[in-house]
Design goal:
Blueprint (H helix, E strand, L loop, with lengths): L17 H13 L8 E11 L3 E11 L12 E10 L9 E6 L15 H17 L1
Antiparallel strand pairs: 1-2, 2-3, 3-4
Protein name: AKA14 protein
GO molecular function: protein kinase A regulatory subunit binding
């Protein structure tokens, strides 16, 4: 069976705002198959002007709060970049990339389905580090 990668329809460059970017990142996250015990918040970090594009940086911070531990021992962040090309028409959709805090690998939502295991691995590694200290 072929794996269907869930993605959303991204806004065009001319309709993009920082708020729209954050809303669309939340819409993308809602397509991810993660257990309901995971909670996250997203935030806009910065705007970056480059020679050939404008980049908008966001972060989604994930954790699993519990009744005993409402503030999780460790969290996992996913960093998003929304790119608006200076060479493409403003009717073209924005480009979106994301990476995990522990990785340099940059992923595109339309090419790679997000996996909950990635968040678990980050948090398990952080807790293992904390326990060693």
């Amino acid at each position: 069976t072929k794996l269907v990668i869930k993605n959303i329809e991204w806004t065009t460059a001319k309709n993009f705002t920082v708020e729209t970017g954050q809303e669309q990142i939340e819409e993308l996250i809602s397509t991810w198959d993660v257990h309901e015990s995971w909670l996250h918040h997203s935030e806009f970090l910065k705007e970056e002007e480059l020679k050939d594009s404008k980049q908008y940086h966001y972060r989604a911070c994930w954790g699993i709060p519990t009744r005993r531990r409402p503030i999780p021992r460790a969290t996992a962040s996913v960093y998003f970049v929304i790119v608006i090309s200076k060479f493409k028409p403003d009717t073209a959709p924005v480009e979106v990339f994301y990476r995990l805090e522990s990785s340099r690998l940059i992923r595109r939502p339309e090419q790679c389905q997000f996996r909950e295991k990635w968040l678990k691995d980050i948090i398990e590694n952080k807790i293992a580090c904390l326990d060693r200290l």
